[in-house]
Amino acid sequence: MKRSHCRHQSLKNLSSINCLISAGPTREWIDPVRYLSNPSSGKMGYALAEVARDMGMMVKLVSGPVNIPAPEGVKVIGVESAIDMKDAILAEFEKADLVIMAAAVSDHRPEAFSNRKWTKEEFPEQLRMVRNPDILKLLGEAKKEGQVLVGFAAETHDVLPSAKRKLADKKLDWIVANDVSKSDCGFASDQNEVLLVGRNGFEKEIYLADKRVIAKEILHAIQSSWLEKAL
Ligand code: PMT
Predict the structure, then answer these.
(1) Among 30, 97, 157, 174, which residue has the least CB neighbours within 10 Å?
(2) Whole-prediction pTM value?
(3) CB distance 103 to ligand 1 below 6 Å
């Protein structure tokens, strides 16, 4: 049977669904004591992992450095840099039915890493940066029939048009857009407010709520679309 068909058959209970989630920031090292990163706490990705686990899925969580304990029953793969995260995600991607990229992956890294700590005098006026791989784009290109790919979009303006552009450009099935310029949601907060857009035309504003509630809304919308296709 084609993978997508048999997967849908098993959707009555989600225990045969492999769910791969990324969470947290990445760290791009400059020298042994300095790195570039971002304020991601991992809360959104960890909430998604816990809800997916509670729905019965087998969950693997590729996590940047965060201060959140590994959720019970979830396999956590710890990574640091964007390149480490790419390698870990690609190693698991083939087996995954549902992939959710909630991590805040650095788009750039320092061109050179100094093995010695730079003194104040040595530290360069300008740091040359190079592009990191766009993991989500790689996944969109490698995606197989029956796999569902969910991206996040951290925006500060034009949230809907940016989200729809990413949905199309990166061949996603769903995109979760959040306005990270607001102080009471997005990075590090316990709450979030998102716009959930599906390739199937689904569009829903999920207003300010705890990240667990947001995670439930996202995963239930995905499950419903699976069941509709399966019926
Ligand atoms: O971790 P929290 O503190 O709970 O905060 C949650 C969050 C704000 C980090 C989360 O809700 C969120 O928005 N995550 C995505 C942040 C991000 O990197 O957005 P972006 O628009 O820069 O990236 C778009 C998508 O491409 C994301 O799915 C990202 O995982 C992915 N990406 C980005 C860069 C890159 N080099 N490779 C990628 O795969």
Answers:
(1) 157
(2) 0.94
(3) yes
